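Consider this one:
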Amino acid sequence: MIRHIFTVSSGTLASRLLGFARDALVAALLGAGAVADAFLAAFQLVHVARRLLAEGALNAALVPAYWRVHDRDGALAAAAFAGRVLGTVSLAVFVAAALVGLLMPLMIAALAPGFVGQPAFLLAIGDARLMLPYLAFAGPVTVMMALLNAHHRFALTAFSPLLFNIALIAATVALLISPREPAVAALLMSATVGLAGLLQLAILATRGGGLATPIRVAFDREMRGFLGSAIPGMIASASPQLMIVGAAAIASTSPAAISWLYFANRLIDLPLGIVGVAMGTVLVPELTRAARDNEAISARAAARGLELSIGLALPAALGLMLMSAPIVRLLFEHGAFTATDTSATALALTWLALGLPAHVLTKALSPAFFARGDTGTPMLAALAALAVTIAAALALDRFHGVAGIAGAIALGAWTGALLLLICARAQFGLTFDAATGGRLVRIALAAGVMAGLLWLATRSLAPWLDDGHRLTTTIVLAALIAAGIAIYAAGLALLGVVRPRDAMRALRKPDLRA
């Protein structure tokens, strides 16, 4: 399991790093004004589509269903089932994209009510319509990725999303070299989004042949049952992005707030993607197989995934909180992105980071439900988290602005994670034995020591982080991050949480029963 998580995490890390490069270029090109707000509000549709479909969501529903058919009727029946899923999902998302295009003014009014009557409203409609081809391509892309994951072919699905960011980076660089009016530049970048989806589909289609055949559209009893299970799972897996969308709707009433929230959330997406998406992608097939073999093994695997998630997410959250301002300044403060934008974005990032461990816990807990065919419980937890986020954002925005909205997202994330923990304990007896509980305490202690030393270091190096040359800031930040990782790893080793020899063995040979 750990080896597969490492593979998916590596691909996700590469994609997220390219995403940072893309967002840094977008910040330089568009800044944080009305054009940027409109483009980023439209871009939220793409992010929601990726969360609902590509990044582990449909995977969570398709993998267990695929293997149930495979075990019951054989490989040919499983391929035929996959072909019906591919045809049906592809048609459904094509129709959905067409309907969204027709209803786009209503969609933007719902996602960003503060835009209504402002220039950003028409800009966002135009940008979003040009991005819609990505939604049509996302359906077949997602099915192919899930089928490859079901056969433990994680490398291709982990690295194919790189094409999305590479295409957008190329377009943004071209626009920086040959400047256009900001609104025109945003339209050209929006058109590139659809092209990026086509590139990803082409790569997956050439390598996934035979896994879904024959391709046809069907709405038979089996397909209706699958879709009835898949849709709640898709909503559950998109929980972090749905909370951002809900919060952005409230933020749309304040100039530049959507941009600040977007860029802060992009930094949260790095550890969330590396840990959360990897856990969700790998744990579903692993837990599905374990649940078929032995319920006790499945529960133990879920506990291990939870422990691993906390161990990776907690230090990441503390590091982002402590170094939010220099990180935002280094990545985004150039071109049209000002020092004022940096301060607001860094403040939002600090509050968003409080919810990072909860997001990752949710990503680690949900597969335990998905593997048992239960997608309804995670969906209800996601909807509860969304409701708490919106209610808290409405209350806090008035007094604390974008920081209050970011804090509301963190509160919603913890609400969803705690609800899933309670349900997991009640439904399938998820518990932590004394050894696991002790390791969790030692993980928190190691992260606390790392955070304390990092806080002292950032205060001592503040002149180089705040006012230094960009190259100097880069070197100091890289050194601090490396030192934080080393301190945390040393703490884990000294406290007996993990041994280097065991970690290397896990990377070479995954074993759920260990």
Remarks:
- The radius of gyration is 22 Å.
- The chain has a mean pLDDT of 82.
- The chain is about 85% helix and 0% strand.
- The CA atoms of residues 45 and 128 lie 7 Å apart.
